[in-house]
């Protein structure tokens, strides 16, 4: 009972922090709308037509997209770190970023236009397809009959990711006029987020979050080693497939709407594990909430640091993520 109250308290505090960060995020932008005005518009529907448009069509979709992209990357990081039993693993360790970047670059280079509900989804669609193709190749290389070696998976992910990275460099060489657009996508941004982006990322997130909760016990056992987990009656190979499918889908959907945003999936689970332990029953919800808070906070910084210029959010996550991770790596005293 005490553990339940403690877990509920931790999750409640993080959720309240997330709500405050969300409200603050909606106030930030070229048009200054104070937080009390934002609350009045959202809850009571007051305000001018222009203010409602700015909040409901620009800032709220952006904030919600940031929440679910951050939460998705953090969830993928938790699952992959459990799979590899290594805190250095993150959603891009299998080369998913290179596949997504290549797909997006192809869409931009050839000017492919696919319109759904008045919104262009060509870059998102091609980024998703590129990421899925890349992870499929990695999986086919790594599997041996019915056995999937995590070492082969990691090495093949690095190799195939470098191959796709090479293709991306070739595309950049030939994309004279589009190179700025491609680089802007590769650096990651939430600036063009619409409700379409929200719908793309939110459904896969909740589906695989539920799956992750059901796998909490198995993930805990996997941390003890594959042989120990097998002795506990866990189908290791099936668990690996579920984790691979889940992380691939979550990450692909997330990067397709935001571009490449690094270090959230690496640092957030690492911090959560240090603060709250390695039990996935608490690690999963805490990491998800911390991931949402972290990405939304960095997006706010991206808008506030050099106004009116908006920095790519991927640059901010790297700028703060690298020193934080190195500090934790040196100072934290814990075993994975």
What would you note in describing this structure?
Belongs to the binding-protein-dependent transport system permease family. FecCD subfamily. One of its GO terms (cellular component) is plasma membrane. The protein has 336 residues and is an all-alpha fold. The protein has one domain: Orthogonal Bundle (ABC transporter involved in vitamin B12 uptake, BtuC). The chain is 76% helix and 2% strand. The chain has a two-stranded antiparallel ribbon. The protein has a two-stranded antiparallel sheet with strand order 3-4. Strand 1 (115-116) and strand 2 form a beta hairpin.
End-to-end CA span: 26 Å
Q: Could you give the order of strands across the largest sheet? A: 1-2
How many structural units, i.e. domains?
1
CATH architecture name: Orthogonal Bundle
Structural class: mainly alpha
Number of helical stretches of at least 4 residues: 14
- Helical percent range? over 70%
Radius of gyration: 20 Å
Number of strands: 4
**Given the C-alpha coordinates, what overall shape results?**
globular
- Under CATH, the topology is which? ABC transporter involved in vitamin B12 uptake, BtuC
Give average pLDDT, whole number: 86
Series of H and E elements: HHHHEEHEEHHHHHHHHH
